[in-house]
Amino acid sequence: MNLDNRQKMIAGAAVLVAILVASTYVVIGLGGGDDDGDGLKEYTGYFDAMGNTLKMETQPSTIISTAPSLTELLWSLGYGNQIVAVSDFTSYPQEAVERLNSTHPNHTPSMGSYWEPNTEMITNLSADVVFMTKTSGSVSIYESLKDAGENVVMLHVEESYVDIYRNIEMVLKVMHPVPAMLDMKNSVESVKEKMSNGAEDRQILMHLGWWNMDDDVYSVGYNTFIDDAAKMSKVTKNTADIDGFAMISKEFFLDDNTNPDIIISFGFGAYTDWDDLMKDLRDDDIWGGTNAVKNDEVYVFTGRAEDIASRAAPQAYGDFVKLMAMILQPQLFDDFEPPKTVGNDYADLFVGHW
Hints:
Layout: H1 3-28, E1 46-47, E2 53-54, E3 63-65, H2 68-76, E4 83-85, H3 94-98, H4 119-125, E5 129-133, H5 138-147, E6 152-155, H6 161-175, H7 179-195, E7 202-208, E8 217-220, H8 225-231, E9 235-238, E10 245-248, E11 262-266, H9 274-283, H10 291-294, E12 298-301, H11 303-308, H12 314-328, E13 341-342
Parallel strand pairs: 3-4, 3-5, 5-6, 7-9, 7-11, 11-12, 12-13
Antiparallel strand pairs: 1-2, 8-10
Helix pairs in contact: 1-6, 7-12, 8-12
């Protein structure tokens, strides 16, 4: 493969995988381990091409590249300035070549060739992570560096586009900061543990709060992360029996099988406060007959609390799962009475409970 084609292939693959990771990182989770049923993977580290794991407490800031192809890959992903040593025969990008010159202000030394690396130099540099490519001659070097205490990641031999995709994904997983992802995972596990201690079955209606007593209701259905968060809190039936989001006639909720025990509204719509909303709900021929309205089990998320219900970001989702648990299963939290309106200061509810 000539250099131009290789550069184009790596650049194209980098763009595609970066888009993939950016758009599905929550689903991909943290790599490695077993799926625990909620779409996230149990965090056990990152599996490399040797089947070993690398568990790092912080994002790596210094890197050693042991092959020209790895240097090119790392530069294409934006990590060039973090490389503290490269290998002989580095030829791209030009800035990496220039840094091999000892007079360069950001001099990057060579740690030897891929086949005969200077392992003593690698160890002395104490980089956060060393990237290698798996070949027959690299396995023994990999093992010796690991025995010396180095964090080594073995990438796959690039025999096809698929291997390049896998390598880019592995690099991104290792280099991507993970605290937010771990916080989200911890939030999910905390909710699951809490729900195992006497959670009650609940029937719920969730919708975007465009309240108008004469209109249909824009409801939240299945195959949404909002619905998934509710299910973690022992919601046995989403009364909006729909896929995704859809308008539903309020007459639908007259049936006992679809009569909600709880209504969670994401926003007030035309209303300004909970009391005004509840007055009209009670006076309405249909809403007034729902269990949720009769028992004052109507909760409105506003401000930042409303935002986290629509943001598929780690911290937002982690907080949303915990908040839903407290609203839906308040009896599991000591001395807690859920407020009817939850806003910008929703995190204050977590104090003493999580």
